[in-house]
Amino acid sequence: MDKVQIVEVGPRDGLQNEKEIVPVAAKIQLIDKLVAAGLKRVEASSFVNPRWIPQLADAEEVLQGIARPADVTFSALVPNLRGLERAAASGLREVALFMSASESHNQKNINKSIEDTFPVLQEVAREALTLGLRVRGYVSTVFGCPYEGSVPLENSRRVTNALLEMGVFEVSLGDTIGVATPKQVHEKIGALVKDVTTERLAGHFHDTRGTGLANVAAALDEGLRTFDSSIGGLGGCPYAPGAAGNISTEDLVYMLHGMDYETGVDLERLTEAGAFIQQQLGRELSSKVLKASLACKTV
């Protein structure tokens, strides 16, 4: 069977957008449940300045409390050398850098131009590699920007290549505001995989307009085998007004298994993790598989 890697980003990309701060104990339980379901790559938190994202100010406590199986890779977002220092002290083996393909979103998100962001991330990547850490890269707004609209392919190509030259092992291409369609995915990812091997690219789709899973299917056709997703469909983007959550991990796993892809994830245990965080948040999450699973249990 063809294998697909799933990078679970709910504990970071999902919870950072919640209005209420989820308690440390609940975050630890959630991550442990995700790992118990078979997920091998989990983005556990972020070492961005707590003033920017207070929802993740407890990164050290969370990472100290979770179980650390040897076969699971935990990572966190780092914006600068200070964030990297905190991540390394927490015992992480992988960190992630982030920037945007569109100038306006990069300014809103990082408060720097794209050109001024490159040397900052290059410094962080160099130090991380020196420390023996793996470095992942995120490129936001590949398919559209909330401030500029359509984003030229050359923007994404330039940023992707710059990150790869810094030494990142993988670049996650993000549809930050959920505007992509399968046609656009075929066009843009089809072009980018010609520059880069498919093993070094991942897809990060949001479901704002209901096309998230269709876009995954299109990316699979182009050779991608790594996708980011969020438990329950948690997420959004604080700098992208109206952006809905990431594609749901439950929905993604259900679709992939139905297409005969192997993920190594136990869907039943995964929905238990979704039910847990839904209960903690006190509201219904968007995952359709989670809704169906819970509905079946009440019949």
From TrEMBL:
One of its GO terms (biological process) is ketone body biosynthetic process. NCBIfam families: PRK05692.1. The gene is mvaB. GO terms for molecular function: hydroxymethylglutaryl-CoA lyase activity; metal ion binding. Keywords: Lyase, Metal-binding. Belongs to the HMG-CoA lyase family. This is Hydroxymethylglutaryl-CoA lyase. Residues 4-271 form the Pyruvate carboxyltransferase domain. It comes from Brevibacillus reuszeri.
